[in-house]
Amino acid sequence: MEKDKLKMETIIYLAVCLVLSNICWYVGYSNPDADYSMIFVIAASYLPMILALAVTKITKEGWNSLGVAFHIRKSWKIYLLSILGSLAATYLAYPFMLLLFCNRVTVTFSMQTVGEICLMTLLGILCFIECLGEELGWMGYLFPKLEKLIGTIPACVVIGIARGVFHIGILIFMEYPVQGFIEITVSNVCMSFLMAYMFKGSKSVFPCSVQHGILNLLPIFMEYDNDWYYTSVLPMAVCMLPAVLLGGYGLWQMKHRKILCPLKSVP
Predict the structure, then answer these.
(1) Residue 230 phi/psi, 5° resolution?
(2) Which residues touch 45 (CB under 8 Å, ≥6 apart)?
(3) Which of 5, 37, 134, 253 is deepest in the core (most CB within 10 A)?
(4) Rounded distance, CA 40 to CA 25, Å?
(5) For 32-58, what is each residue's pLDDT tens digit?
(6) For 120-133, b where at least 16 C-beta lie within 10 A, e where not — what string?
(7) Own/partner pairs for 53-60, CB < 8 Å, 24+ apart?
(8) Which 3-state string (H, E, C) describes the chain?
């Protein structure tokens, strides 16, 4: 009975969150100059958290189960990983792209570039609260429930796919929405393994929020032709390589620390 209840709660949460968030994204981005557009964008960003807080309050699970404690003293290495992982996810592909496609991409790098990266990294750390709207819902609420139902690895895959679907209301306004959806979904599936390790290792959702905040703000200095990038498999694969490596590291750490939960049934 508990398993059926947990499954139903998870399905309802996902369905409501993904449908309402995409409606908000669409309304906000379809008319960005309207006075109300930013309200809908903010609503979509915080919807996973709002629903998670509401559900845990109704079910009397309590907000402590969402990983709302910082645990910085015990988990400072994981916080450092969240910062370094963000930098790696953003810029690690640059050398490979330049090596393989030197005639297709350009990168402008200078001391000013380094300053901008440092500034945006610092701002991302300070603005982690903005991304708490997503992470408290995905990692704090949904991930532990999915892990109980289907195990850690499938839970990471589902979370990554959910993150991709969550952004459809934005992606449809892109020049290549299908390719964009594939890219963001695959990358998020991989990065979910790193986030799962950070969440389980720190027992806090805040390292995930810090990483998300930095990734949202880090500037991109690589320039390329969208027609070439989104219609070619190889450059997209190279750009997703850092996410694959970081996800592999997260999976390895969970196995090494024996915090990887296998598929098991809830009583």
Answers:
(1) -85, -5
(2) 130, 133, 134
(3) 134
(4) 7
(5) 888 889 999 999 999 999 999 999 988
(6) bbeebbebbebbbb
(7) 53/136, 55/9, 55/13, 55/141, 56/141, 59/9
(8) CHHHHHHHHHHHHHHHHHHHHHHHHHHHHHCCCCCCHHHHHHHHHHHHHHHHHHHHHHCCCCHHHHCCCCCCCCCHHHHHHHHHHHHHHHHCHHHHHHHHCCCCCEECCCHHHHHHHHHHHHHHHHCHHHHHHHHHHHHHHHHHHHHHHHCHHHHHHHHHHHHHHHCHHHHCCCCCHHHHHHHHHHHHHHHHHHHHHHHHHHCCCHHHHHHHHHHHHCCCCEECCHHHHHCCHHHHHHHHHHHHHHHHHHHHHHHHCCCCCCCCCCC
Structure tokens at 130: 């903005």
